[in-house]
Design brief:
With about 300 residues, the protein is mainly alpha-helical. The chain has a domain of about 200 residues. It is built from 13 helices and no strands. The chain is globular and about 55 Å long. It starts with 8 loop residues before the first helix and ends in a 20-residue tail after the last helix.
């Protein structure tokens, strides 16, 4: 199967790696915790805030829908947090708090850069790509794309990054399903290829029995060795998942010419270095920081 795009999958992946830290500040920045705490969410860890902020564009969604769309979390974990999310604050209030959290967090991280012409240019380019997103079969992208655009450049950049990353995430779930990987298997294989140690994924609350059963299923397919490391076949499968994810994420970037994509990448590097340099984001796991897959593109 081939995909028509003006940009190679590796370029699309680079853009994700640059935009993902912009989006992720809302789950890690101190200001995001403060705004969630003001709504009444517990802030002793990030998960009450995470589930509320990320699910709010869907409206008062229940655990079944959120579990299906977020994919990698134990259903018990989703049920635990969704049981109280909308009792604490309705989605409209959560979205308002999320917008304030984004504004405050990025201003704190970027300083004067938040009001710079370069950031405004980056926001405009990213917005053009985000507005070109096709939302059929992309529920989280659709929910965020339906929200009104903010006005300040740094918040426009965040909103564009969010639409594009959820579009990519929706496609990633399709890629996992196409390669017959269920939620816990996807995490076990991700650990097996060295993206993060297995202990990092304990936060997703799968039981030891569920994790071990997934390892056995993957081993029976020749994808994992006895020590839990991915075999050559396992690495090849995970690489195929990532390549398909990049291909499925490529469509909106066709709204930009190659030189505009290159310009956006150049413009994004300084603010992303500001964000990553603040050391509030994890360097292992699912954010794509420093994660590479070798494939011909």
């Amino acid at each position: 199967m081939t995909y028509s795009s003006a940009h190679r999958p590796g370029t699309v992946r680079q853009l994700w790696q640059l935009l993902e830290p912009v989006h992720a500040v809302v789950y890690f920045a101190p200001e995001a915790y403060e705004e969630a705490g003001a709504l009444g969410y517990a802030t002793d860890d990030r998960w009450p805030m995470y589930f509320a902020y990320r699910a709010a564009p869907l409206g008062p969604a229940g655990a079944g829908l959120v579990n299906a769309l977020f994919h990698s979390f134990s259903p018990r974990m989703v049920e635990h947090y969704l049981a109280r999310s909308w009792h604490t604050a309705q989605p409209a209030r959560v979205l308002a708090a999320r917008a304030v959290a984004v504004d405050r967090s990025l201003r704190a991280l970027l300083g004067e850069r938040a009001d710079s012409p370069d950031l405004a240019e980056a926001a405009g380019l990213a917005r053009r790509a985000a507005e070109a997103v096709t939302t059929g079969g992309r529920p989280l992208a659709a929910a965020n794309a339906a929200l009104p655009w903010p006005t300040a450049a740094h918040t426009v950049l965040w909103h564009a990054a969010t639409i594009l990353r959820e579009h990519r995430g929706d496609g990633h779930l399709a890629a996992l399903q196409a390669h017959h990987l269920d939620p816990v298997e996807s995490l076990v294989l991700q650990s097996g290829v060295g993206a993060a140690p297995a202990q990092w994924f304990e936060s997703r609350r799968w039981s030891a029995d569920e994790w071990d059963a997934a390892r056995e299923r993957l081993a029976s397919r020749g994808l994992l060795a006895e020590d839990g490391a991915a075999t050559a076949a396992g690495l090849a499968l995970r690489t195929a998942v990532e390549k398909l994810t990049d291909e499925l994420a490529s469509e909106p970037w066709s709204a930009l010419a190659p030189q505009e994509v290159a310009r956006l990448a150049d413009l994004l590097l300084p603010p992303v270095l500001d964000i990553v340099g603040a050391e509030i984001l994890p360097t292992q796991g699912t954010l794509g920081i420093g994660v590479t897959y070798d494939y011909e593109d």
